Amino acid sequence: VDQPLAPGARIGIFGGGQLGRMLSVAAAQLGFRTRIYSDTTGPAFDVSEDGTVGAYEDVDAVRKFADGVDVVTYEFENVPHITAEAASAVTPLRPGARALEVAQDRLTEKSFIADLGISVAPFAAITTEADIETAIKTTATPAILKTRRLGYDGKGQASISGAGDVAAALKLFADQPAILEARIDFAFEISMIAVRADDGTMVFYDAPRNTHKNGILDTSEVPCGASPEIEEDARDIARTIADALDYVGVLAVEFFVLPEAAKGQRLMVNEIAPRVHNSGHWTLDACLVSQFENHIRAIAGWPLGPGHRHSNARMTNLIGPEAQQWQALAGQDQALHLYGKGQAREGRKMGHRTQLGPKTGDVA
Amino acid sequence: VDQPLAPGARIGIFGGGQLGRMLSVAAAQLGFRTRIYSDTTGPAFDVSEDGTVGAYEDVDAVRKFADGVDVVTYEFENVPHITAEAASAVTPLRPGARALEVAQDRLTEKSFIADLGISVAPFAAITTEADIETAIKTTATPAILKTRRLGYDGKGQASISGAGDVAAALKLFADQPAILEARIDFAFEISMIAVRADDGTMVFYDAPRNTHKNGILDTSEVPCGASPEIEEDARDIARTIADALDYVGVLAVEFFVLPEAAKGQRLMVNEIAPRVHNSGHWTLDACLVSQFENHIRAIAGWPLGPGHRHSNARMTNLIGPEAQQWQALAGQDQALHLYGKGQAREGRKMGHRTQLGPKTGDVA
Fold first, then answer.
1. How many CB atoms lie within 10 A of CB A280?
2. pTM above 0.90, yes or no
3. ipTM of the assembly?
């Protein structure tokens, strides 16, 4: 993408879920057409010009898909390497294969971030039972064992208080390569939704404070209540990571904010996501330009839109059967977003709601 | 539609233009699917589950379309009567055939509004040249001659300063039935975007002040600068009209605000539109719930969303080649909406942009 894509151009998206759907809608608002490629049909297909259901490993189908669009992006970090390779041989892939490689393996991700001089929780790779003892020396206990690949929303994770727990969890994970991470005693969690254009220009949204329920994001709220210095640090860290990846698009960085008692740096990176992020959904309603639109602007080579918000916001996810209360939810003074998914399975993200209030600054 | 439509239900839309497109996107946000029926393909097709290109007079195709959805609505008031009849025999049509009948003939519209005791410009029907003299006695000159049907954006209109002009204009209009309207000396124009639910509940947006260029809406701005009493009158009038039509959905009413010197009532209705309206596009960016979403909520039998705005707003249309400046427009602190239309023909609505500012109340 050397020239900005003109309105009318086609944007391809790997993944047909709610993030792809919201990306499609944002692209449409700027006059673009979107096409979806996914291994299963999903809610993004309903708001796109065209959709292909195919295996990600079917490189012929992937190539054909990429050939029909002007740029390809993705809504999830687990796009297989061969898929990314096949697509990018034909059409620009943004944010790009390197971001996928880093983000889809927790060991690669943690090492990459630590190598940039950014603070992360102490961690150690566990490939076989023989690694357990040394790993626990690195992290101490309590710790968390995570599969290196394909974990999300708390899946593929186990709490560890001793070596016996690790052995048991490894069996549960069918001996997949894993990573042991120290459990961090943090004050609260925030995230940075950053956007990077291909010329390196960056736009940052205010950092939301995030809470989780059963390992799944529950609420994101701005302002987050951290000091301006902490938010500044979060922006600097996001910039360092994005620059190192020569990143184009929205990058989400999740942070632990350490307690006041912690000396020096009070931020520690938990993980990154090379895509639009659930903790940025409030930008749809509280900002002139949402994270979805700014992702589209970035990958299309457009000027980024402003990241400032006009309101305070509190986003709450609607998980599984919670979305069945849509009638009551629609009657309240809030924005309601439903993703058009069929089955309200336990733990499935079905929608979210956003309450707005008059804008106030950060509470330091 | 006796029960509220559950998410996942299908909404049919007559018309495939930008209003249908923005309705589709709003419907998707609530988890609905949309299908478009239009006599030509258009930008709404790109964000819909399915689209049918067919003649509006092809009642078999219309019936089949209506049969595939749970409610039918429209983006334009010139849906032919037989189309509305065919659709509504199969599936609920909202706002309904009566609203179409009233709005698609300027004489019926004016008479209907005047019969409700609401002030409109003096008017008279002109069917043949024999009607000219009496008509001019009613309206005086200067006046405006308009075709009764199918005029929009200043098309099918002619300025009249004497009987000779009328005769000439009638020829230009190929002897279509016309209406002569007095030219009103107004201070400025506002509109009321009102939403009515099927139980009669109404929600009103703040009235924008509208300016036109070459007969086409140029800008809409809130607050409009009219007194609270005038805005209250505008709401009352919109309610009277909506109630009389047993209306469901968004109804737009355009008003002339008369100069201070005018005694008594300072509002006069210019025209109504039984649909979402260009002068309500700012609600996309300045309100939690836009006119498009509230139209969908109303026709789906949902609770209406709040109509309040969080910001001041100024919407400017991008007409014809103006939209070719998208790169410069995208670099400014504003929301940019492009409709995905192919050709930037002179006078064609290609997109709009919205600037926001901190909210202030009305300037009395």
1. 27
2. yes
3. 0.93
